Amino acid sequence: MTFIRRKSFLPLLGIGSFLVFVLWSFPAAIGFSIIAPDQVRGFGIGGSVWNGEAQLIDINGFRIQQARWRVNPLRLVLGSVTGDATARWGNGFVEAKYSLGLNGAVSIRELQASFNLSQLQSQLNVPGISGEMNIRIEKIDWHQGWVREIVGRGEVRNLSTAMIPLGPGQTLGNYELLFDQAAISDATPLTGALRDTGGPLELAGTLILKPPATYELAARIKARPEAPPILTQGITFLPPGPGGTRQLIFADSL
């Protein structure tokens, strides 16, 4: 009787092993074609869905190169998709660890990114924008479609843009944005501190992220004595603030 039970168990073991092999080696190209939306196209996709790469990913004209990812399949048992990913575009790069919960929660850890803002000119819709952007994020947590916690900083050096259409680029300086807090509740906004770190403009302000999906930028700006006249005159259209500053307030939804 024991011998018969063992013989009946062997085919099940073989089928199970085959299924594990198929899932483990499931081609990334097939997986990408199944889950990628219509506006996202991938080229040169290789490896598996658990450990794969794509030579090029086109997202509505924005091209990411040399994308690589790893997924820890053991974390699926705990109800999350966890792994790490890297990618490049032009001279820029991004790398991060991620966790996607089945309840919709998203966590990003150890995110690093560096690129020139000119590479995002069409997305930012700012003529002639340029500047070296560096982002270092310790953690970001999303829950129910909105940011619940963010700890990290972003800085841009040698920011420049055209003050007039088709005009030459004008240097605006260096700036830093710092977040280091968690939301107390679902209705609590997150506030980041914004300041200049050198250049022709003094700037101090905040970037407030408000649920469900809005943001507000509020800053006071003042031209330093060495600022060029075109820059000094360019901020005079802003409402006056205390101490000879000008107030910049901008709000929108995401």
Termini separation: 66 Å
How would you write the strand order of the largest sheet?
Answer: 1-2-3-4-5-6-7-8-9-10-11-12-13
DSSP helical segment count: 4
What order do the SSEs take from the amino end to the carboxyl end, as H and E?
HHEEEEEEHEEEEEEHE
Structural class: alpha+beta
% residues in beta strands = over 45%
> Low-confidence parts lasting 5 or more residues at pLDDT below 50?
1-22
Q: Which sheet architecture does the biggest sheet show?
A: 13 strands, antiparallel
Would you write up a description of this structure?
The protein has 254 residues and is of the alpha+beta class. It contains 4 helices and 13 strands. The chain has helices at residues 2-24, 28-35, 121-124, 229-234, and strands spanning 40-47, 51-59, 62-72, 80-89, 92-101, 106-116, 130-143, 146-162, 169-182, 190-196, 201-210, 214-223, 246-253. The protein has a 13-stranded antiparallel β-sheet with strand order 1-2-3-4-5-6-7-8-9-10-11-12-13, covered by helices on one side. Strand 3 and strand 4 (80-89) form a beta hairpin. The longest helix has 23 residues, at 2-24. Residues 1-22 have low confidence and may be disordered.
